[in-house]
Amino acid sequence: xxxxxxxxxxxxxxxxxxxxxxxxxxxxxxxxxxxxxxxxxxxxxxxxxxxxxxxxxxxxxxxxxxxxxxxxxxxxxxxxxxxxxxxxxxxxxxxxxxxxxxxxxxxxxxxxxxxxxxxxxxxxxxxxxxxxxxxxxxxxxxxxxxxxxxxxxxxxxxxxxxxxxxxxxxxxxxxxxxxxxxxxxxxxxxxxxxxxxxxxxxxxxxxxxxxxxxxxxxxxxxxxxxxxxxxxxxxxxxxxxxxxxxxxxxxxxxxxxxxxxxxxxxxxxxxxxxxxxxxxxxxxxxxxxxxxxxxxxxxxxxxxxxxxxxxxxxxxxxx
Length: 319
What we know:
Number of helices: 14
Radius of gyration: 21 Å
Distance between the termini: 37 Å
């Protein structure tokens, strides 16, 4: 079981020092297949720091380009969140019945039409999903048209005809951890702008990630689709809040460990999109946190991350 902890470290570190770490754990905790929780947390944190340093040491691309790439990935995932259940049901041809998303049901095939709904060609969630996959593989020229189609689908009635009413009507709330639907064009516009920058700045230099990074997305779709968890449910939004808080802490740890500013870009992008959604407060707004607390939680990490980076850089110069 100790070998599972080594997965937190980058591959070069595992090849050089993996056996040494395992030997130290076996000597420190004889007869145990798993170290104490405090040791597990320390190893995972050290592994995350080692991965962050490996990213910074890779000089194949400038830090700001990598940061914009991370921001585009974060925005694509944020845009996909409300449609996890819908894409899963559509892909497997499942009729959710009364557990459908809180929009008019519009059949799973171009020639099918459900009660009270309109025929659609594809679910809206296919657009951010395609954008996410293209960005993972370092192909922004494929993600750019998908992001532009997201803007068109959210801004025009013709988009509703092709992609159904998803994201055009229905309940939602805009707070910390709440999904943002297609009608919010700031999210799709920011994603499209990031993809355009990546497509213009020598895409061959972008980091290409394995398809294994899609495993959490498929798992989230399976959970939302199998349990019929729609994005307006408290369980869904609490889970998203925990996930985003974990990602923020990870960005904080990486910034403090390396002094690099690339992780500030995705944090700033998500904070701007969420802050705008809270301030606008559309008609379907359902408040779960006081606005002031939400805004503080969104904005406060930015200067904290910048200070952490400056301190780390100062320590590196002193050493």
